[in-house]
Design a protein that fits this description.
heterodimer, A: 781 residues, Alpha-Beta Plaits, 4 domains, 6-stranded antiparallel beta sheet, 30 helices, 65% helix, elongated, B: 216 residues, alpha+beta, outer membrane lipoprotein receptor (LolB), chain A, 11-stranded antiparallel beta sheet
Amino acid sequence: MLRLAALLWLALVVLAGGYMASRLHDGLTFRTDLLALLPREEQDPVLQRANDAVAGALSRRVVALVGAPSRDAARTAAAGIEADLSATGLLLPAGGRLDPESLKRLGALYYPHRRGLLAEDDRTLLEAGRGEDVAMKALAQVFGVGGVADASLLRGDPFLLLPGFFAGLPFPLSRLSLDEGMLTAVEEGVTWILVTGTLAGAPFALDVQERFVGAFDASVERLRAAQPDLRVKRLGAVFFAEAGSRTAIQEASTLATLSTLGAMGLILLVFRRATPLLHSLLALGVGLLVGFSGSLALFGELHVAALLFGSSLIGVAVDYSLHYSATMFDRSPATPAERLAHVFPSILLGLLTSLIGYAMLAVAPFPGLRQIAVFSILGLSAAFLTVVLWLPRLDRAKPLRHGATLLRTAAGLWGFWSDARRRPLHILLAVAAVTVLAMGAMRFRADDDVRRMQALNPALVAEQAAIQSMIGATTAPQFLLIEGADDEAALRRGEAVAPLLARLKREGVLSGYQMPAAFVPSAERQRANQALVRTALEQPFLARQRAALGMPGEEGGQAGGSGEVLTLERALAGEAVPLLRELVLAPGLHVATLQGLARPDRLRAELAGVPGVRLVDPTADFSALLAKYRERALLLTGLSAVGMFLALAWRLGRRRALRAMLPPLASVLLTVALLALIGHAFNFFHAMALVLVLSIGVDYAIFCAESGEEHRAVTMLAVWLATLTTLLSFGLLAASVVPAVHSFGATMLIGMAFAFFLAPLAAPDRQKSLPAVGTTGGELV
Amino acid sequence: MTRQKALILAVLLAALPATAPAAQQGSAPPVAGAATLAEGQLLRGRFEQERFLKGFQAPLKSGGTFLLAPGLGLIWRTETPFAVVTVMSPGGFLQEAQGQETMRMPAARLPFMARLYGMMSGALTGDWAALSDIFSVTREDGGPGQPWRLRLEPLKPGDPNMPVRSITVSGTRFVETLEVMKPEGDRDRITLLDQRLSTTAPTAEEARLLARPGAP
């Protein structure tokens, strides 16, 4: 019967392996977009598209400033770096640069439509009836030193309205100026030249990072050999990502090596043979394989976050095999099947409670949590089945005889709790626990800001700030989404919100903005401009202007240019307008990029009543998402605890179940309190680790509660081993420099230490005296 | 703010053709008989400018006074047909028409201006090397007391940033005429008159004007 089940299980695992292999063969991709983690009903496809487009464009931007005391050296170095980067094929020229060629194209596009194109200040003057000022300004330019005008321009545009419109185009990078084709700034005797472009690849792809940043560094090094005082500052997601991955890879390999070697060494040291290690690896491997392939089959594709957390949760599976293996230390000679029978009730109960915990995650309407839950449930069940069905069959081990000291030591903790003479110490600990809980509750605060969960390279952050102060504020990650029924409607909405933005700019809320309507006014606005030019400028002043300029012959009553309006479609088709392509996502769906947004909250509030225009703040949105996930994970942890209690009550009775729940619950609460006390602001990653602390803590408690008197030492040894391996794998993460990972690791480290220390409290006591800590946890169930 | 955003365009289209001749106006070429300005000296004079626009009936004429103060800058004050004041200084470029500011470019945001001013003072102290980076200079000495001529031609005539085809400068003691040919066939002709050197300091109003382009 069991033999058949084992074979069946083998067939299933092989099937899972086959499925996995075929998926891998087809090329496995993971979802990495954060919005995929949002509940479906909260996803806005328009918003998501805009987010992807804007964030994508922004994250591919590469900016560097190359500085040297001598202008020529700076220019040569900038050209050198640009050439080296272009040679990699990974740097595309940046849009938005105004070289003479693109200016010429821009001129050719606008010139025929010039009568409908007015600079904002000219339009204001004309609306105020001050056409004479506009005329005067043109004459000053013609007569003064500073002739924008050549003969042909003046003939077509005697009021020089088009140069005014040009000058008013909102190109960013306002603090830099063109010096013989290179955008330049001079600061404290150093000439800085801008090198900019767009990355031709994903900044988060490792090979792109390596090739691009490698080429950049090599280029700088080469140039510096010739020009030792060369200074280079960098800005761009690719630099941050490269530095981040470099740290992460170094760290991950160190931690993984430490944790693998540590856990393997520990198991080998304790058992003095390889079988238990192989058993653990087998259980873990099968768990991962089944969890992974099963979730893939269910969901079609997995989010990378689910893979990450799911794998962590399956880590619990090792405990089952360790628990089984520890029975080898049992004094009484027994067959593997008998040994399994000893631990079977506790690992089954452990599995059931964990499954209940993870099932709670699955009912939440959060796709990310659901994937994590399904992954873990499948993986954990698979590991359990492997332990139960396969291990006794593969086990040829004789009982171990070397463990006397080990067992005595392991049982020490049990002794500590059950020893009535230690009562005063127990009470002291209980008081300490209550104090920690109370103080922690006062210091508790949550912080979901995603920016504080990433580890940004401090040197790059400093360079970014330096660049921003030198070139003017760079484009903010926030943007405005302008929606309309069609392009014309969206352009009008942009124009309607423009005065508000101009006011906020004067008030310092932001320092600049670009919207499609600034480059191509709506047809309505262009017609209004034409009318304004006719009535407020040409009819009263054209004849005089012509006379003042000594212009040849009358060419009708107007200054030329067709009455036809420039359409957005035409402007886009010619690719003549830099930046415009990035601002128009689709017909009727426009983006306004923002610079130097100092007060997003203020802007959001001001936009509240504006139809079709909203502020999108991807960082804030993601932080809000994390907050939601944090709350949800905490709520579910609470629900899981209730579910676990019910399962335990069914097996152990209410009283014993309550008692078994006490250590894990106390661990969870003490962990939260202690984290608050050491200054952690609580976030989603802490919450996820708590799920694990609870589920592992319940396992330990059950192992202790279910352990017969004569097996206590062996059980305690298994719990010791489980704790140490868990600490080696998760606790080490506390050493990570990535705040998110550090949060997870620190929670595990503290939580596991508590869960382990308190676990024996779950066992029914010979003496009637319950340690006082019990009351603390008990009230909270 | 609009002015700042105008920079890129303004520099491309406006600054060079206008300011290149401006750089020449006070220059005292190291040719026989030419005067050289020293730091602390002022050159004052009148100017007449004729701008010949291709296809226009008559040249656009303007006139006024100028003041060149080495180290401080140049004030180009157009009086007819209406008042336009242009100031170029190490601090930048400023233009006012009838009391209203129409253009302002601080040199800190405009490296070209600083370079131009360097070129100008180079020319003032007789250092033509500053100009020979950009122009080839041919000179015809007229002998002592006789008029001389300098012909400046861009080294890179096809450069779209260089909307000047050639500049001809002539004079005896001072620069007396400047003729700027532009690629599209327009040309400017500037005549400098009544020039005199003095060692008095600029007036308070002049000093204020010279300080303004660099002011925030």
